[in-house]
Amino acid sequence: MQNIDLHIHTIYSDGTWAPNEVVLRAKRLNLAAISITDHDSVAGLKEAMAAGKKLGIEIVPGVEMSTDAGEDEIHILGYYLNWKEKEFLAELEKFQAARAKRNRKLLKRLKELGMDINHKELKGFAARGVISRLHIARLMVRKGYVSSIGDAFEKWLNSGKPAYVKKMSVSPFQIIELILKAEGVPVFAHPFLSRRDDLIPHLVKAGLKGIEVYHSAHDSRATQHYQKIAQKYHLLITGGSDCHGEAKDKVLMGTVKVPISVLKALKKAAGGEILSV
Question: What is the pLDDT of residue 127?
Answer without folding.
Answer: 64
